[in-house]
């Protein structure tokens, strides 16, 4: 499966996973691959009510080699020269989404009063599930613009969703509001969002995990809850941070390592040889443990797996982004084998 086919399956890709597994990085990688193939990709992040900023926003900017803050107005992170392809990003706040909603529906005077009175944030969060509903409503508005082919609309929207613990509640909120309301604008908005979430031609969900015990367990649990409580379609699991495979023996004695080092023109101290031997054993155990978790994930969650390698870097930037994008393109290409 080529990238264009992969990204043509839905206009909205929701990316979620346990905190710390790299879902923001994966969101950037997906958008970057789409942009390579000439698509306009928009990464949407969520700013919690009352928060001034999110660390994920700074990480996303650095990933593309930029230092501009990501706010409600979209900024360009990367543009492919000579094509329309590129990556933009924006951070959606429930209060700002409410103001835009009121403007769209001809209630500018009400929005100005809410802002002037300082009650905007209170109104945006007063009803349980309302902040999530406002964010998803904005995504729905962007998706409709993309479907209509509006000139400034993105071809692909990648939603860097809340971590797994909040993701189920986040995606379930419009269903709850739809059942709890009997009519009016709120029910109409909830109905529109539910229709988007439940249509796999418009919206799909990717889960992200690392090949470790706790993240894999939480990913399996999250997938089951999403299938039970929401109408979203789960289409794949991105296994992030898999160590490149090394064919290592069970143990190499320091004396044998000394001979190997000497053959390469290196002389190592006794302490260095001991450390090198221990490091080899540790790497072998980590590889084996990751393989066990990947196999367990495949057994308990029968979804296509797309692997991204571990990056040996303290901070990710454009070089690592390109490395990961290349790996993701390879994983996407392998999906054609899975589908046959």
Detailed description of the structure:
The protein has 340 residues and is α/β, with parallel strands linked by helices. The chain has one domain (3-249, 302-339): Rossmann fold (3-Layer(aba) Sandwich). The protein has helices at 3-7, 23-36, 55-63, 94-104, 108-117, 120-125, 130-147, 164-180, 184-197, 213-229, 254-263, 270-300, 318-339; strands spanning 12-17, 40-46, 75-79, 86-92, 156-160, 203-209, 234-242, 305-309. It has an eight-stranded mixed β-sheet with strand order 3-4-2-5-1-6-7-8, sandwiched between helices. A hairpin with a 6-residue loop joins strand 3 (75-79) and strand 4 (86-92). Helix 4 packs across helix 7, helix 7 packs across helix 8 (164-180) and helix 11 (254-263) crosses helix 12.
What key phrases describe this protein's structure?
340 residues; 54% helix; alpha/beta; Rossmann fold; eight-stranded mixed sheet; elongated; 15% strand
What's the structural blueprint in terms of helices and strands?
Elements: H1 3-7, E1 12-17, H2 23-36, E2 40-46, H3 55-63, E3 75-79, E4 86-92, H4 94-104, H5 108-117, H6 120-125, H7 130-147, E5 156-160, H8 164-180, H9 184-197, E6 203-209, H10 213-229, E7 234-242, H11 254-263, H12 270-300, E8 305-309, H13 318-339
Parallel strand pairs: 1-5, 1-6, 2-4, 2-5, 6-7, 7-8
Antiparallel strand pairs: 3-4
Quick take:
This protein is an alpha/beta fold and 340 residues long.
């Amino acid at each position: 499966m080529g990238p264009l086919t992969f990204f043509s399956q839905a206009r909205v890709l929701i990316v979620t996973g346990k905190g710390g597994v790299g879902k923001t990085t994966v969101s950037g990688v997906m958008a970057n691959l789409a942009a390579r193939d000439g698509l306009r990709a928009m990464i949407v992040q969520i700013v919690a009510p009352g928060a001034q900023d999110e660390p994920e926003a700074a990480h996303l900017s650095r990933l593309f080699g930029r230092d501009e803050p990501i706010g409600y107005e979209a900024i360009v992170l990367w543009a492919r020269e000579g094509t329309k392809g590129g990556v933009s990003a924006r951070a959606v706040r429930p209060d700002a989404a409410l103001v835009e909603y009121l403007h769209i529906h001809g209630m500018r005077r009400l929005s100005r009063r809410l802002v002037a009175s300082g009650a905007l944030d209170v109104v945006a969060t007063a009803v349980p599930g309302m902040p999530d509903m406002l964010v998803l409503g904005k995504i729905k508005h962007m998706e409709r613009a993309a479907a209509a082919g509006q000139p400034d609309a993105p071809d692909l929207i990648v939603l860097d969703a809340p971590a797994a613990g909040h993701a189920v509640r986040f995606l379930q909120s419009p269903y709850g509001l739809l059942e709890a309301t009997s009519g009016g604008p709120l029910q109409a908005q909830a109905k529109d969002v539910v229709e988007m979430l439940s249509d796999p031609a418009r919206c799909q969900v990717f889960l992200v995990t690392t090949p470790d015990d706790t993240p894999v367990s939480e990913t399996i649990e999250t997938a089951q809850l999403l299938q039970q409580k929401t109408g979203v379609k789960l289409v794949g699991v991105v296994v992030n941070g898999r160590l490149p495979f090394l064919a290592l023996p069970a143990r190499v004695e320091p004396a044998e390592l000394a001979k190997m080092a000497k053959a390469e023109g290196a002389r190592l101290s006794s302490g260095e040889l001991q450390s090198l031997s221990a490091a080899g054993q540790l790497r072998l155990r980590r590889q084996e443990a990751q393989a066990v978790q990947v196999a367990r994930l495949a057994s308990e969650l029968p979804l296509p797996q797309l692997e991204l390698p571990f990056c040996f870097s303290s901070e990710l930037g454009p070089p690592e982004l390109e490395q990961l994008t290349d790996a993701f393109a390879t994983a996407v290409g392998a999906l054609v084998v899975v589908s046959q």
